[in-house]
Amino acid sequence: MTIEIKPAPVRRQITVEATPDRAFTVFTRDFGRWWPKDKSICGGQQKAAVLEPRQGGRWYEIAEDGAEQDWGEVLAWEPPSRLLLAWRIGADFQFDPDLLTEVEVRFIAVGDGATRVELEHRLLENWGERAEQAREAVDSIRGWPDILAAFAAAVAA
Length: 157
Prior knowledge:
alpha+beta; Alpha-D-Glucose-1,6-Bisphosphate, Chain A, domain 4; 7 strands
């Protein structure tokens, strides 16, 4: 018997011209350099995005006024192959410490010096009755595809 989860996880991938080690480093340690400033829950007033490079580390943004707004935390830190993040942002795009969706990012060597970056945003059913609507938002061109494009540009720079 197959159980179908609704809504389905968002799965996106992109290939970058970099080793898995470099791709992982740019994604994590250089996170604040490439994360799009318009991907903010501080009302568009984001000064910086921060991903603390360790299991248990915070994932958050800093507003122009210096206020910090949590997004979640690092659940798994496995350089250079895997990163698992708790995304505690609700369907209303506000932080909810009691909510858990997960963003898993895998870095897979393909060919000579290239890496396929696979992203899966799952447990979307935890968004409740607005889950389908929220899924559509994060899967739209302005969601994960836009974010992965910004990451790829940073790798290429």
